[in-house]
Amino acid sequence: MSKNTPKAIRGTQDIFGADAEAFAYVVETFERVRKLYRFRRVEMPVFEKTEVFSRAIGETTDVVSKEMYSFEDRGGDSLTLRPEFTAGIARAFLTNGWQQHAPLKAATHGPLFRYERPQKGRYRQFHQIDAEIIGAAEPQADVELLAMADQLLKELGIEGVTLHLNTLGDADSRDQWRAALIDYFKKVEGGLSEDSQERLEKNPLRILDSKDRRDQQFLADAPKIDDFLTDEATAFFEAVTSGLDAAGVKWKRAESLVRGLDYYRHTAFEFIPDEGSAAAEALGAQSTVLGGGRYDGLMESLGGAPTPAVGWAAGIERLAMLVGQRAEQPLLDVIVAVENDEAIGSALKSVSAMRHAGLSVDLIASGSPKKRFDKASKVNARALLSIDIRDGETQANVRSADATGLTSQIDALLKNLL
Ligand code: ATP
Ligand code: MG
């Protein structure tokens, strides 16, 4: 690399090899599972007007106040590279009249952008899979969405990750809890971190989410949501937990779990690796793989009618770190050695026929013709097909130690072809 070759932007990744296969495996598995639950695919713009995020997510959140990539475009509009999917999907729901499809089960995946300190499992451009149910007020929607997340992790072969579940109550419960938290933290204000002192009045729930030790010492005795839940909120949470039990989804109550974003109501959850598990080891400090909850108040913040909704997002990179080798490409079916340049036409015909029959095929047709067969025999494949021309006749020979009938399948495919 010469000195004047531009470097990649800090916090971005060029994903290649086994990592790229693991990434694709996560996305493919998500695509399969979301169809089992009848989620419809949506494709969203990578940027939106800045206000879409500042209004939906909330000015006092870390995402909006510190992490957004915002810029003025050539027309003078303030735009932002999406830091999450939900706000943009909510905007689209309103601007496109998707109410007609409610309850709308939507799924998508793609890149997100947050100005964070890059480290293992934390990037400035990262990727998420995302699932939302919009226009559904009943707890069964939460259950279905969580069952899908749980099945996805199982199908990815990820073990040792548990659903941590909380309720933030309805607007009434949440307001009372909020006031009690302000009272409680005010008494110990001087001992809190600077960040928490600052968010005490504006966003005291976020103190519960703090990773700072100065804050954590006060968390055990902080007021608990359960003391403020209205009867309705209690009934809602019970319907969610009994639904999860019926669906066979394991969960654990996490009383101080709050989500970083302002718009959450009722159900809030994260899938977190169990302490000491291989998954916890693999992820290090960045441990949450999937998070979400119910956001009944979000549509109103964008000027829409009240619309109940629930959703989750998971980091593809973090999931990919947990699937590991499982995602390697399967063994190659056929390696083809073209031993004579004049046989290239026949070789291409054969390769095309085999690929159309669903076999994976690679071709060795460059370098010294005499060495191609040796090269091909060193490739790990289920079968080796050599193609040569002798006395003007095209010769095709299959060698395979595979006992599944692959040799006769290839012979049959090539029979009337060459
Ligand atoms: P964290 O507490 O790790 O910052 P968060 O609450 O900001 O997470 P969400 O906004 O809920 O995360 O995003 C859902 C998921 O997206 C996370 O659980 C994680 O897997 C992934 N994620 C979030 N931020 C990043 C990032 N900067 N790099 C890689 N993955 C990320
Ligand atoms: Mg974050």
Overview of the structural elements:
This protein is of the alpha/beta class. It has two domains: 17-170 and 230-323, BirA Bifunctional Protein, domain 2; 332-414, Rossmann fold (3-Layer(aba) Sandwich). The protein contains 16 helices and 15 strands. The strands form three sheets. Strands 1-5-6-11-10-9-7-8 form an eight-stranded mixed sheet. A four-stranded mixed sheet has the order 13-12-14-15, sandwiched between helices. A three-stranded antiparallel sheet has the order 2-4-3. Helix 14 links the parallel strand 12 and strand 13. Helix 1 packs antiparallel against helix 5, helix 1 (17-36) crosses helix 13 and helix 5 runs parallel beside helix 10. The longest helix has 20 residues, at 17-36. It is elongated and about 95 Å long. The mean pLDDT is 94. The protein binds adenosine-5'-triphosphate and magnesium ion. Adenosine-5'-triphosphate binds next to strand 6, strand 10, strand 11 and helix 13.
The CATH homology group name of the largest domain: Bira Bifunctional Protein, Domain 2
What small molecules accompany the polymer chains?
Answer: adenosine-5'-triphosphate, magnesium ion
Reported CATH architecture of the largest domain? 2-Layer Sandwich
> Distance N terminus to C terminus?
47 Å
Count every beta strand, where a strand is a DSSP E run of 2 or more residues. 15
Q: What's the alpha carbon Rg, rounded to whole Å?
A: 27 Å
- Which strand order do you get reading across the main beta sheet? 1-5-6-11-10-9-7-8
CATH class category label of the largest domain: Alpha Beta
